[in-house]
Amino acid sequence: MYIKKIKLNLQKKYMYILPIIGIIGVDFKHTDLLMHLNAAKLENEIKLVISSPGGFVSEARMIRNTLKKSGKILYSTNSGDVASAAVGIFLTPQKQNRTFNPSKGVFLIHLPYIDPKNFSEGEALTSEALEYISKELRVEEKELANIYSEETGCDIEIIKAYMSENKVMEEDHIAGLGFAQIEKSEFKAVALYNFNNNNNMGQQEVVEKLNVFERLLKRFLKNLVMQDVTGVELDFGEIKDPAEIKVGVLVLISGSPAKDGEYVMAGGEIIVISGGNGFITEIKPAEEKEVNALKKENDTLKTEITTLKKEIKDSATSFSKLNSSFLELKNQFTKDINFSNNLDSSENNVHKVRKSFKQTLKK
């Protein structure tokens, strides 16, 4: 039996993680996809992990068509924003294989447009040119709307309405319209168990399950994971302290070696990765102006903390005054009541207490 298990594990297939990060057609091109597909030729499943503001529609269409023809079982999720041209790529897998985490980024569809930077300064736009551009945009708009409608099952007119709004989509709209299932980063610890009841799970079994949970939690906390300014999560492996990050350290993104490029961290430092293997080749210190900006922000926070402390102190003083007023009011009702342990239970004393209380109410 043990030998059979080993054979099953050796035959197990692993999912290939394919990060799609940056502007489509600039930071991630169709040729990048081909490189990944070659690396994943022995895998049956590919998971697209997307963080992109969009990009060139034509490049996104090529990427989408190639993925559909790959014959792989596809999944998609996000590590950042999924917007504009990136949405079509995100929708390539079947509906049940798509998840979106709103805590990591935004989801946005909109009408296609022409970037004014594509025209030379002073270039004349004739009516014929404008008519041609308008016609091409309508074609792109119709094609995108059809893709969104087909992949979500939502009515095309509703899709067009959302594209016209050009607004970030809410969680219930993303799920309700069929774009993706919502995935939330929640961690809830529940410690409610009565060992004295007749539950089928015994105390020993509960302890064993808690031990497994503890081991998984320690494993999760072992790796240092940091986000750059765009929300990309960089996994530094066995490193636990950011001070240990240096040249030669391997960086992973969604389980795969980080793509070559520069990753700007929250403190302004720039981590440079090159060579195509995910290793850090250079760490550029934060620019002086960024450091000064951080110092200024720190001074502002200190001022806000000082103000907050004063408000808390003032609130405590007000509460003390309110408590004193309450005690004075309470004393008016109880000044004639004797609560000593030697209280005589005679009728006269009982009468005195009741009488005193009634008189106070009349005042």
How would you describe the overall organization of this protein?
- The chain has 363 residues and is α/β, with parallel strands linked by helices.
- It is 45% helix and 15% strand.
- The protein contains 10 helices and 13 strands.
- The strands form 5 sheets. It has a 4-stranded parallel β-sheet with strand order 1-2-3-5. Strands 11-12-13 form a 3-stranded antiparallel β-sheet, with no helix packed on it.
- Strand 2, helix 3 and strand 3 form a beta-alpha-beta unit.
- Helix 5 (127-152) packs across helix 6 (156-165).
- The longest helix is centred in the last third of the chain and has 47 residues, at 288-334.
- The model is unreliable at 1-12, 187-195 and 337-363 (pLDDT under 50).
Quick structural gist:
With 363 residues, the protein is α/β, with parallel strands linked by helices. The protein contains ten helices and 13 strands. The strands form five sheets. The chain has a four-stranded parallel beta sheet with strand order 1-2-3-5.
